[in-house]
Amino acid sequence: MKNLTLIALTFLALNTFAGVFRVNPYQTITQDREVTLNFWPVNDAAVDIKVTKKKNGFANFEIKKFQASSSELQKISLGTIACNETLSYEIFLDKFKYDQVDLPALKCVEENKSMNIGFLSDTQIKNESGLERAIKLSELVEKIHKDNPFEVLVNAGDIVQVGANITEWLQFFDVSKTYLPKTYNIAAAGNHDYYDTNTTNKTPDFFANFFRSKNDSNLGNVAFELGKIKFIVLNTNFNVLSEDRIQLQWKWLKSELDSAQKKDLFSVLVMHHAPYSSSAEYIRPIPRRLREQMVPILESYKNVQLVLSGHLHMYERSLKDNINYLIAGPSGGIYNVLSYKNEYMKFFKQFVTTFTLIKINFPKITFETYDIDQNLVEKFSFTIKK
Ligand SMILES: [Fe+2]
Fold this sequence. Notes:
The protein has helices at residues 2-15, 128-147, 166-175, 205-211, 243-262, 285-299; strands at 21-30, 34-41, 45-55, 58-68, 74-80, 86-93, 96-103, 114-120, 152-155, 184-187, 222-226, 229-233, 266-270, 304-309, 315-320, 323-327, 345-349, 354-361, 364-371, 376-383. It is α/β, with parallel strands linked by helices. A 9-stranded mixed sheet has the order 5-2-1-10-9-8-18-19-20. It binds fe (ii) ion. Fe (ii) ion binds at residues 158, 190-192, 272, 311.
C-alpha cells in the first residue's frame, strides 16, 4: 500500500511536468558571479529570451534567440550580475510568452545594508515520507521567501538520492519549483549526487549540468563576492577525488581566502560534509581530513566565521575557535540520530526537517531555523569579530 501511495505521489509530482517545461526556468550563480539561466522545454522550440538588467536607473536589454532542443537542459549564460542590479527575463517559445521572472535586486551586503540567504540541504527524496516532507518544505521555503526574500539560496548537497537517476532530478525540480526560480541558486555536490555515476576526479555530469556553468572548474568548487561577503564552495567528496586534486582544492581555498582577507571580506564556506557533528560519521575519513587539513587553514584566517554543511540529516550548530559550523537538517532525506559526543556542539535537534534563513546585517549574522510545521527550531545571532 505504501509503495502504491509513493507511486501515486511521484506520478502527481511528475505529472506537473506535462506542458511546457520538464524543468522550469531557474538561475544559478557560480564562479565570479556568473548567472546561468537553465530550463528544459518539453518540445523543440524557437526560443526568444528578453533579458533586462537595471541598476541606478539605467537599463540594459538583450534578446537571445536560438533553437532549443527538447532532449536536454538549456543553459544560457546571462553574464555577471552586479551588486544592487535587478535581473528579469521573459521567455518566448515559438513566439508565445511562457514565463516571466523578475528577480529582486541582488542586494550585496555593504556597511549598513542587509541581505538574506536561504539555506537547506539533503533535498534527496528516498521514500514516501521523504517526498511528503520535501513538498512541505518547499511550501515553507516559498512562504519564508515571500515574507523575507532571500537573494541567494544555498543547497549544501545530496540534491537527489541517486545522482545518475534523471527521474530523481526531474522530481527535485518539480518539488522545488515553488522557490528555485525566485532566487540565485548555489549548490555544493554531495556524495549522493555521485551515486551510480562512476565519476571520479570531477563533478558528476547531472550535478554539473544543473548547478554549474560551462565555465566552472570541473573540480566542483566555485567562489564569488557579493559586497562584503565571499562565498566559497568546496567539493568535499574526497573519496572520489585523487590526492593531487584534493591538494589543488586546498591551494585554491587558500588563494580565495587570501584575496578575501586582503579585501576585508567575510567568507562563508559551503560544503557537503561537516568537520564537527554529533554523528558517528565524525570518525570517518572525510570529516577527519577536514579537521586535520581544512580547519587549520580556516583558523589561520580571521575573516572565516561561518561554515554551512549538510550530509548528517540532523540540525546542529557547533562553535570552535570563533568559527560557527551550521549543519542543515534533511529535506526529503531520512533522519539520522545522535551517535557521537561532539564537544563543540552548541545546539542540536534530531528528527527535524529544516530550512534556515540567514539574515546578514553587518556585522550581525542571525540564523532563524524553521521546521516544516513552521515552528521556530532555533534563533541565534553572532557578531563578526574583526
Ligand atoms: Fe550526504
